[in-house]
Every structure is written in C-alpha cells, then in structure tokens.
Amino acid sequence: MESGFPPTRDLGFGFEAEPGNRPEDAGLLKRSLTEMEERRRQQLQQMPFLRSVKQRTHLASPVGRLASPARLPTPLKSTSSLTTVSSELAPQRRADFGPDKGSDAMRNRLQELERRLLLDDEEDETCASGSALTGAEWRGQEVQQIIFPPPPPPPGLAAAKKLLPSPTNSASSTVSSSASSSPPPPSFTPPPPSSSSSSSRHVLLDAAASIADGNLEAAEANLAVLKRSANPRGDAEQRLTAMMFATLLARLNPPRTGRSKAIAELCSGEHLAATQMLYDLSPCFKLSLIAANFAILEAVKDQPKIHIVDLDVGQGRQYDALIHALADRHRCRPSSARPPAVKITAVADPTTLLYGNYDASSLSEVGGRIAKLAERAGVGLRFTIVSRRASELDAASLGYEPGEALAVNLAFVLSRVADESVSPANPRDELLRRVRALRPAVVTLVEQEINTNTAAFSGRFAEACGHLGALLESLDATVPRESGERERVEAGLARRAVNSVAREGADRVERCEVLGKWRARMSMAGFQPVPVGPGVSEPVKARLASFRSNPGFTIKDEAGGVALGFGWMGRVLTVSSAWR
C-alpha cells in the first residue's frame, strides 16, 4: 500500500537498508568504528528537536503538516514517531550516514531514544484533551520553520489576525488552534476587505460571551481590541463596533441604585426626534408604517366615519401618508362622493413614559399640524387627546361614537410594554385584551424583527449585532454619511442598544419579539390575522420603487401571506401585519 513517503527503505534514522549503491558509501565504509560513533553522537546532539516530536493517534499528525504540498503523506498506523519524523525531516542528511550494522552501541542508543519518545506520548496523553495545538505540535512547527522556512505572509493577513480574540471556550479554542497550526495552502490569497468586518464581529460576540461567563480578563482583552477598531464615523461595521462597544461597557457598569439614566434618555425630546428621523430615513421603517396605513384603509373602505386610536402618535408623520392616500382615493371616485370624516385619538398614559411620551401641549401641536394638512388635502379630520391608563381604555373613554369604523394602530408600541417576564400582571397581554374589547375593525401591528425580550444577554447581543449591522448598511445606501440627521439617528440607535441589550428587569424598555411570537400572543388575545391583499402589497411595492433605486431593499410575504417583511440584503428588519 502506498504511503506517500519517498520509495526508500528507511530503518529508523536515515539509514538505508541496501548500502553501497552510492559513491560516497565507499569512503564511509573505510572509517573506523570509533570515528563513526563520534560522528553520529555529534549529529544527534545537533538535532534536539527529535525529543519534542510525539506520535498522536487522536490528532492530525504533525508530520502531515511538514510534508510538501505535492505529496502529503498518508498516516502510517504501525510506524513509530522516530521513524516517521526521520523519514520526512532529514532526507537530505542521509548522505552523511553510512550503514554500520555491526555497531551495537549505536543501535542501543537509537532504541533508547525511541523508547523515551514512546514514554513521552503517555506522559502528554492528558494534554491533548484541551486545545488542539499541543506543546509537541508547537515544537514541531518550530522544526518546520528551521528546516523549511515559511514564506512571508501575504499583505493584510497580519492586520486581520490582530483582531482575533483569545478563545474563551473549548469550541472557539479548537477553531483558533486549528487555523493557526495549519500552514496556508499554496493557493492562499489575502482575505477580502470584509474579513476585518467578520473578525470585529467575532471579537464582539466573544467579548459578550466572556462577560456573560464572568471571564473579565478575557472581556477586557477583547474590549481593548474593539476600542481600536471602533469608529462612530467609519464604515457600517466600524460604527456597529462603536455602538456595541458602548453596550458592553454599559453591561459591565450597571446602574447601582434607582432606575437607569438610559430610561430618561429614551424618553427625551432628542431621542423621540431621532426615532422619527429613523422612520423617515429608513425605507424599512417607513414602508412598514405605510403598509399599516393601507391595511387600515382596506379594512374601513366605503365607511363614512373612520376613528383611529393610536397609543404612540409621535410626531404624526405616519398620518401624513394616510391623509394623502385618502385624498388620492377620493379623486378616483365620482364628484358626488364625499371623503370620509377621520378622527384620530392619541392616547397618553400619565403613569408611564412608554407610550408616546408627549405632554398635552406637544400632542396639541402635532394634532394641529395634521389637521392643517388634511384641510389642504380636502379631508375632514379631528384630533383628540385622551389621558388614560392602558388598563382603563374603553369605548366611552376613547370617545367612540356609533357608526364609526374603529381602527387601532399599534406601531412600535407593544415592544415597549412589559410582559409576563417582567411583571405578573402582564401589562402587554392586558393591553391586548383591552383593545380586543373595543371590537375594532382592524388592529395594525408594526414591530422590528428581532428577539430582545426573553433571550439571555449573549443572545440579545448577537441579535442586536445582526439587526443593527444590516440597518447601518441600509442607511449607507440611502443617506449621506456626513448628514447631521444620520448622526442623530445612529446616536438614538446606540441608546436603544444599550437599554435593550445591556439592561435587565424594569430598566429594560424595549423588548422586541419576532413575528412568530407576536402571532401566538395575538391569537391568545382572541385576534385573527388579516391576509395581505393586493390593496396593501401593490401600493407598498410601488412606493419602494419610487425610492432611490437600490436592489438591497426587499419586501416579501411572511407567515404565509399574513404579514409583509421589509429588509436589507435578505435580512428582515421590520414586519407589518393586520388583525381583527
């Protein structure tokens, strides 16, 4: 059976079984036994590396890594470490050795050396259970570098390796060790520019895992690497690193007493303005709100009175698009038809800052602006404000009048209401029961497609890295990087990441869930999904086409056509659905 080694008969240390076939053998045979022993003793002393090479039956043989790529050897089951190493490491030295079968002293020395090597295998048996890169293999690499000096690394490879963290678990340790112990193949090319991005993402995840495990030493080492690669004004990956670096620091330094400062920051006017800018600048957020508008219009079409209850009106930009859509529909009808009367009720919970967080004066300004826009568009609109707890909402408190087609808009609301994981009262389900009791014609639900609710810290961190990374890339495709609005939007995203990922308990405001969980929660509350029809999907897709042309943005049906998912480069960022 071919082994892949050179076709010479090797007896253990570069001795050939058939002497006399080479010219130099004649000279060697004339030497005295004493000279031969002295020569072999000196050359043995000059090769200390043989003491470090050990046979491994459960790991890849180091010899395989030392062979040239042209003829990688097949591991031999019955070959000792001494024989295997000598046949690969010292073929060029065999010319210096002649056969001397009568030399018992030399044979005894070789047997003693091989016996010690085999004993070393037993001594290091436990070392192989950890990292795949053992001490013997490391020394074997040194031997390879001495005999076969490696070529200089390709440009850019050293810089990419600097970002690799020290592994904190056995899985990452094995991967890192295997990568470092194997020489690059002949066809190796420098990593593409995205390799640094994947490396920084790996360091982020490794740092989060270290913090979760309480391994502060490894966490600090990774944070030092992240600090050098983070740049709030760099590319998408550098900005993501800066955001998540701040999140890791916040996790390491939680607030000592009272509610965290991040809650106040999330309820500030600056943060609310940044959130509205996100809805305006990001096609994924903007289109999901437009889809909710068309779902409302489809559910209440041909109704003379429309009453929309909104628990987070914000700056009211969502209704700008709804008013324009109503006006466009009215133009397509006969002149005798009258546009429907619209009433928007903004709910402000005085006991919490989670809904809207607008005081009466701010909401009045929003309502006045919307009413003026509706007047110019020829749509009659009335804006009212109701200050009520979520647990006190009913038809009477909301000013519901007979004959009104009622719609409830829950756009980015439920994710900021605590659920059973925070409070036994489960305010999230209580709110849904209250909404269900209103018997609305439609309930629109818009949320981010990310799980930052019940997942542990490491899971939330990984979810946020993927979600925010795609969102930042999508912003690069639509908004100039030097835009002041862009900076404010990303500052708001950083605040949200700190709160939703680094905080726990009542200090965590935003608790997003994926569509599957929202479907289960809505069904338990007694709602049924409304399939997405062409009256919703077609105008939304037309709006996407009207935006700056970029194939990275996608719209696709979710959950069998009961929702629309809006994403970037295949990752869904927001989902819009309707229920009744």
From TrEMBL:
GO terms for molecular function: DNA-binding transcription factor activity; sequence-specific DNA binding. Keywords: Transcription, Transcription regulation. Residues 73-89, 157-181 have a biased composition (Low complexity). Belongs to the GRAS family. Pfam families: GRAS. Residues 365-397 are annotated as: Leucine repeat II (LRII). Residues 91-108 have a biased composition (Basic and acidic residues). GO terms for biological process: regulation of DNA-templated transcription. Transmembrane segments: none annotated. A motif (VHIID) lies at residues 306-310. GO terms for cellular component: nucleus. Residues 1-26, 36-55, 60-108, 145-201 are annotated as: Disordered. Residues 182-194 have a biased composition (Pro residues). Residues 502-580 are annotated as: SAW. It comes from Musa acuminata subsp. malaccensis (Wild banana). This is (wild Malaysian banana) hypothetical protein. InterPro entries: TF_GRAS.
